[in-house]
Specification:
About 40% of the residues lie in helices and about 25% in strands. The protein is of the alpha/beta class. The protein is globular, with a radius of gyration of 19 Å.
Length: about 260
């Protein structure tokens, strides 16, 4: 059974159809990319998958549970986690505290225990701190655990944001333009990290990205949106040679570059 099953979701804003009949069946440890020009509906899809928007039509099933009417926190608890195009860290707290805060939804103590710092509270805080530190080690950020998040280099901020998303133990990780603002060497490192994350945490990944060489080399499957509708899908070779995709998004320059490599 697919981890995430999306069946013909549509999102209307008044008379505007932002996304129409979008479907996706996401398998274990699969990387799927959603591409398309600006305004194609990619972020709207992400917002529906995370519960920010409720689809006007269609269904989303996550881990066998119908998510109709569920709120964003319920999507998160069921196993969806995401990053954003514009990094949204807690900039004025430390690196490790960003990971501590991310775990609060899954804490096993209540307000009373927290207020009076009971043994149960202390034990749970210790567990969370250990998990945060181990996660930082995976991303080679442990030596910066006490640094304010806003003072990290850009590439490290991206890694921290992904680490924060993963510490909630998601089944599916959504990456919204993870290459935004990166130079080529950083994108190469990110590509390796995404594969590492998939293999280490055994999760499936959906990403939105505009850098086509990055997408074509990392995605198992690609879905192409244009004006809210899916115009092509499949493996990279199939998508990049589709005339509708070339016309709508990839363009002649990309096609020529690809053939020349």
């Amino acid at each position: 059974m697919a981890i995430l099953e999306i069946d013909k979701i549509t999102m209307r804003f008044g008379g505007l159809v932002a996304v129409k009949d979008f479907s996706l069946s996401l398998g274990d440890e699969e990387i799927v990319a959603i591409i398309g020009p600006n305004g194609a509906g990619k972020t709207t899809v992400f917002n529906m998958i995370t519960g920010i928007y409720q689809p006007t039509e269609g269904t989303i099933t996550l881990g066998g549970v119908n998510m109709k009417g569920k709120k964003p926190n319920q999507f998160a608890l069921q196993g969806i986690s995401r990053t954003f195009q514009n990094i949204r860290l807690f900039g004025n707290v430390s690196v490790i505290d960003n990971l501590m805060i991310a775990q609060t939804a899954n804490t096993k103590y209540g307000l009373f225990s927290g207020f009076f710092r009971t043994p149960r509270f202390m034990k749970e805080e210790q567990r969370m701190a250990e998990k945060a530190y181990e996660t930082l080690k995976i991303f080679h950020l442990e030596d910066k655990k006490d640094t304010l998040a806003k003072n990290l280099p850009y590439g490290d901020q991206r890694r921290l944001e992904i680490a924060r998303a993963l510490i909630t133990d998601p089944k599916v990780l959504l990456l919204d333009e993870p290459c935004a603002g990166m130079v080529q060497s950083e994108m190469d490192d990110l590509q390796e990290m995404i594969r590492f994350v998939r293999d280490t945490f055994h999760i499936s990944i959906i990403l939105i990205e505009h850098h086509m060489n990055f997408v074509m080399s990392i995605a198992d499957r690609i879905k192409v949106l244009d004006f809210g509708e899916t115009i092509a899908e499949g493996v990279a070779a199939k998508v990049q040679s589709d005339p509708k995709v070339i016309e709508a998004y990839l363009g002649g320059d990309y096609n020529a570059d690809t053939q020349g490599n």
